[in-house]
Amino acid sequence: MSGGKDDMLLEVTDLSMRFALRSAPFKPKRHVHAVNGINIRLRQGETLGIVGESGCGKTTLARCILRLLEPTGGSIKLNGRDITHAKGRALREARRDMQFVFQDPYASLDPRMRAFELVREPLDALTDLPRKQADERAIALLEKVGLTAAQARQYPHQFSGGQRQRIGIARALALNPKLVLADEPVSALDVSVRAQILNLMADLRAEFGLSYIVISHDLAIIEHVCDRVAIVYLGRIVEQGAVETIFNAPKHPYTEALLAAIPDPDPQQRRRAADIQGDLPNPSAPPPGCAFHPRCPKATALCKQQAPEPRMLDGREVSCHHAV
Amino acid sequence: MALLDVRNLVTEFTTPAGPRRAVNDVSFAVQRGEILGLVGESGSGKSVTALSVMGLVDNQVGRVTGGNILFDNTDLTALPAAALRALRGKRLSMIFQEPLSALNPCYTIGDQISEAFVAHGDSDTRKNHQRVLELLRLVHIPDPEGVLRRYPHEISGGMRQRAMIAMALAYTPDLLIADEPTTALDVTIQAQVLNLIDRLRRELGLGVLLITHDIGIVAQYTDRVAVMYGGRIVETGPTAQVFATPKHPYTIGLLGSVPRLRHRKPGEKRTRLQEIPGSVPSIAQVTQGCRFAGRCSHSMPQCEQQMPPMRERGPGHDAACYWEGPA
Predict the structure, then answer these.
(1) Distance between CA B34 and CA B208 in Å, rounded?
(2) Is A45 helix (H, G, I), strand (E, B) or coil?
(3) Cβ-nearest to A191 among B186, B190, B257
(4) Residues B8 and B107 in one domain
């Protein structure tokens, strides 16, 4: 990867998203810090995986980056332009460069639109391409993702889950974005179809020089498609760096626990996952100090009092007092 | 003698186009103390197989039309409803996929678990309370006294799934059917639940039918595996053997399409995942031959005409395919 500041695509600095919770009309508001002080750098053509369990804030993070939500703190720069609080025209401009692939291809496509109309919709919304050319481009994109021109005239219910996800991807690519965010892109698909979509994503990345941010709870999928990975626990990144570095030698106890909990698809490598105890804490009342300490086998008095700051260790960034 | 011996099971559903077989000539056995994995994708018939064994197929839409289900030498298909009810929840129990929809939101966890006792005629409230506490401790629920009084929405997903396992274990069943018991859970919680099922199998000698689509779970937790596709078992055998030398092209494709963690050496280029072209056929499509033929790279003319019978390919390892397998 070439260095230099100019190919920096996305810079997320100290990003926070706080939601207000009010349990009763006159009770004082409480807050949930869904995303808390997150830093991410993504270069052109790079792919980043965001991993974490449900409720850890990974989807909120994606929605902030896409500016479907306005963050309550920190900044987001896309191509060097600050879009943290962008509105109107500036925001529409920014959205051309970043698109979303949704998790559930059954819920995210309008059942009353034909495939090519679905792909044309972003073109109609954000460009002034004449209708005929927009149609042609939509059909070309559908062919690119492996559907036929005849299928372009069909409605979503006439496609299988994998084909629908192909439409979702074609739709995301319609505007030639630089960044594609995919939130659990294959978790709603059958196992035998997942490989088709993952391979397609890899091909498109090579062809268009795309950058991906892939959100998943499946570490094997992250390893397969991503260069770098960020492990999120309760709104904070606990470990971030190159996929191989982190997966081969995790430093944060949570990363270790996650990796150990994945059942290895090889019966020759039987090992019982050393299960970490307990559940994810309630995000509206996070434990003091390091949020992972109640479940952590290495926790000490220090962890209960002081949240660890991220530091560089063996080529990755890790937030743990005891990582060595 | 196998604890559960299912022979040539056929379950049909009524569709506007006529009856369709969701489970077609399925045979398998579960021994005591053994975990048999039933793997397949959505629509392969694995859940309907489980419901058929439990006698829970909704008779408005479908019913078991053929075969025998021998549970400890009793044929469940020939059993009157009342006799089946006496077995269910006592010697034969099931864990469902989504604990939130399988639990009743209006009753506390304690009430729902003791319902199992009441249903089988044990209505001593105080004694039941003690038994429920023991069950909750058995499945490692912290603070069992507190959880007992809570409603399903007040506890976490992992906790709910454990409460449901506790319910299934009310009478220490001989056979436990777990239908995707961890699909709704996070990986760290998944490991806790699966380790629990594995421990109970060892300590109480349960036979377990574990239904899943996760290849990793099959590899780590099952002794034997049966692979289902389009309502049929296409391959079955000891897990280690089926994974090492799969014989059916579908099994080969399924195992090859799963990305593996830390399989790549540092610096090594990533390889493409093996794809299975096409998608899973619906049961509405009727075929004479092998249902996988349309997606199979080894299909021959005879595959379209006649369903290949199960053939032995190794000790206890059978596959339903004409293809001789990789050289």
Answers:
(1) 6
(2) coil
(3) B257
(4) no
Mark whether B75 and B194 lie in a shared domain. yes
Q: Which two tokens stand for residue B86?
A: 């006496």
Q: Give the CATH number, domain containing residue A217.
A: 3.40.50.300
pLDDT beneath 70, residues of chain A? 1-6, 272-275
Cβ atoms A228, A49 nearer than 8 A: yes
Using a 10 angstrom Cβ sphere, with 0-12 exposed, 13-18 middle and 19 or more buried, the burial of residue A298 is middle
Instruction: Note whether B219 contacts A263, CB cutoff 8 Å.
Output: yes
Instruction: Please list the ranges in chain B whose pLDDT falls under 70.
Output: 263-268, 327
Rounded to the nearest 5 degrees, what angle is found at the Cα of A273, between the Cα atoms of A270 and A277? 165
Any residues with CB less than 8 A from the CB of B139 and at least 6 apart, and which?
B162, B163, B165, B166, B169, B196
SS3 B324: coil
Whether the CB-CB separation of A52 and A233 falls below 8 Å is answered with yes
**Which CATH number covers residue B25?**
3.40.50.300
Question: Is A323 a domain residue?
Answer: no
The two counts, helices (H) then strands (E), for chain A are 10, 12
Q: Say whether residue B219 is in contact with chain A using an 8 A CB cutoff.
A: yes
pLDDT (0 to 100) of residue A177 = 94
Please indicate, yes or no, if residue B288 is contained in any of the structural domains: no
Q: Which domain, by its residues, includes B154?
A: 99-170
Test mutation, A279, A295, A296, chain B, max B CBs within 10 A: A279
Nearest CB neighbour to A279, from listed B158, B239, B244: B158
State the total domains in chain B: 2
Domain count of the fold of chain A: 1
**B45 is a domain residue:** yes
* A129, part of any domain: yes
| Confidence at residue B284, expressed as pLDDT on a 0 to 100 scale | 77
Q: Tell me how far apart the alpha carbons of residues B46 and B230 are, in angstroms, rounded to a whole number.
A: 9
Residues 91-150 of B with CB under 8 A from A: 142
Q: How far apart are CA B99 and CA B308, in angstroms?
A: 38
Test mutation, B141, B220, B227, B241, chain A, max A CBs within 10 A: B220
Q: Do B264 and A223 touch (CB under 8 A)?
A: yes
